[in-house]
Specification:
Blueprint: H1 3-17, H2 38-52, E1 54-56, H3 57-64, H4 68-80, E2 84-90, E3 93-98, H5 100-112, E4 121-122, H6 123-132, H7 141-147, H8 155-166, E5 171-174, H9 181-187, E6 195-199, E7 201-204, E8 207-210, E9 219-220, E10 230-234, E11 237-240, E12 252-254, E13 259-261, H10 264-267, E14 272-275, H11 285-291, H12 293-298, E15 300-304, E16 310-314, E17 318-323, H13 327-330, H14 333-338, E18 341-344, H15 350-364, H16 370-381, H17 392-408, H18 416-426
Parallel strand pairs: 4-7, 5-17, 5-18, 8-13, 11-14, 14-17
Antiparallel strand pairs: 1-3, 2-3, 6-10, 7-8, 9-10, 12-13, 15-16
Helix pairs in contact: 1-6, 2-4, 2-5, 3-4, 15-16, 15-17, 16-18, 17-18
């Protein structure tokens, strides 16, 4: 089948998938409907059989995530080429093994690429799926309060976050340390109430790019009739901090394995990508921002294969930059203009401090009083310990109080003596 006819087939399949307004990848029943090269499928079946030694056709179908009819077509091709032999039957299922010739071919293919997993989807199909599944949602202050039900946020903060989230554009959270920027960023994924379909891997120019990451993608049970090469999962939330380096934003070719893994922003497509402690990564922030000017502006990223070929991939993720540095120190005016939403998370008021402390005490089974809360506030602000109240203080002080009580073999209390001990342990002198 020519490349043109493959893409025509993939396109018609995609239109069918969109019937009803939502993306639903229907299970292809013939090789010609898969949209990927037959060589990739043949290689996968050979390598899978090589590793198994002896296997059943139904087992190959399960592991390669292919319809039994598709697996049967590939099997018949390999049998005709005398690469696979039938050792017998188990019920209505073939028991297969490699011939001597098939083993030699499989070993050579495995030497080139050790990817042995679910069959890939075409890059075009993946690109269309990402575009169609772009997050669309309605939100107001009441809904945002539900999203942040376990945080204490003022109406002023919510009213900054609301329009920023609705814009479905990048967000810059900034402000002094310890006031909840990371906690806010991590909870933004709750705005998304729906699920998406994500492929295990994509094929481009005969190369495999593995996208699915069990750490970042929360897989759900798939409905009947879905193409098993696609996972149904919650919209992803990918978060990185100071450990991020430039290589994480590019295709990573594992030379010992012979295939690529997707960069972080590709794994975050149709979801949330949090860059925490922005400006403290090993990658220079200006280099990162320059690298992303086009993706942020046009919604497309260009990744480079080791052959030098550049491939366009969708960049459809809500990027949240979180930093306690002045944004003007991190980026020039031209780039900051592209990030339209800049939300400052300030130090908290005494009222917010008291409510945070009350909730923490309630969850820990510690009796809370206004007097104790005032005492902790005063101690945090006295003797040059801190000039402002920070959202992290209540949690951290209560944790130390609990540790003191556990050390002494008694229940924790918010009495003056324990408060003094906890605050003195917490702040450097």
């Amino acid at each position: 089948m020519s490349a043109a006819s493959v893409f025509e087939t993939a396109s018609s399949q995609s239109r069918e998938r969109l019937a009803g307004g939502r993306f639903f990848p229907k299970c292809p029943e013939r090789v010609s409907e898969l949209g990927v090269s037959q060589n990739s499928l043949v290689n996968l079946m050979l390598k899978m059989t090589l590793l198994e030694g002896e296997t059943q056709l139904s087992a190959l179908s399960d592991r390669l995530k292919l319809h039994p009819g598709v697996c049967s077509q590939i099997f018949q091709h390999l049998r005709k080429e005398q690469y696979i032999e039938v050792k017998g039957m188990q019920g209505n299922d073939y028991v297969l093994t490699l011939s001597a010739t098939g083993r030699a071919v499989a070993q050579e293919r495995y030497r080139i690429s050790q990817y042995v997993g679910p069959a890939p989807v075409a890059l075009d199909a993946y690109t269309e799926a990402v575009r169609v599944q772009t997050a669309r949602y309605k939100i107001n202050r009441a809904r945002l309060r539900e999203v942040f039900f376990d945080l204490v946020l003022t109406d002023e903060t919510l009213d900054q976050l609301g329009p920023a989230v609705l814009s479905n554009s990048q967000i810059f959270l900034y402000g002094s340390t310890g006031n909840g920027k990371t906690s806010i960023a991590e909870r933004l994924v709750r705005v998304f109430r729906d699920e998406i379909f994500l492929p295990y891997a994509v094929e481009v120019d005969g190369q495999i790019i593995q996208i699915y990451d069990s750490v970042m993608h929360n897989a759900l049970e798939a409905p009947d009739g879905v193409d098993p090469r696609w996972l149904r999962c919650r919209r992803p939330c990918v978060a990185v901090g100071g450990e991020m380096v430039q290589e994480m934003l590019e295709l990573q070719f594992e030379s010992s394995l012979g295939y690529y893994t997707a960069p972080l922003q590709m794994k975050a497509n149709n979801g949330l990508f949090i860059i925490d402690d922005f400006g403290r990564q090993m990658i220079n922030p200006r280099d990162l921002l320059n690298r992303w000017i086009v993706p942020l502006d046009r919604g497309v990223d260009f990744l480079t294969l080791r052959t030098g070929v550049k491939i366009p991939v969708p960049f459809e993720t809500l990027v949240v930059f979180s930093t306690n540095l002045d944004p003007r120190q991190l980026a020039d005016e031209a780039f900051l203009r592209r990030i339209q939403n800049k939300v400052k998370i300030d130090a908290i008021s005494p009222r917010v401090f008291d409510e945070i402390l009350r909730r923490i005490c309630e969850s820990e089974g510690i009796r809370w009083t206004e007097e104790a809360s005032e005492k902790i506030r005063q101690r945090c602000l006295s003797d040059g310990r801190s000039q402002v109240l920070r959202a992290c203080y209540p949690r951290d002080v209560v944790l130390i109080l609990k540790n003191i009580a556990e050390y002494e073999g008694r229940p924790p209390h918010l009495d003056d003596a324990d408060i003094d001990r906890a605050v003195n342990l917490y702040f450097a002198r």
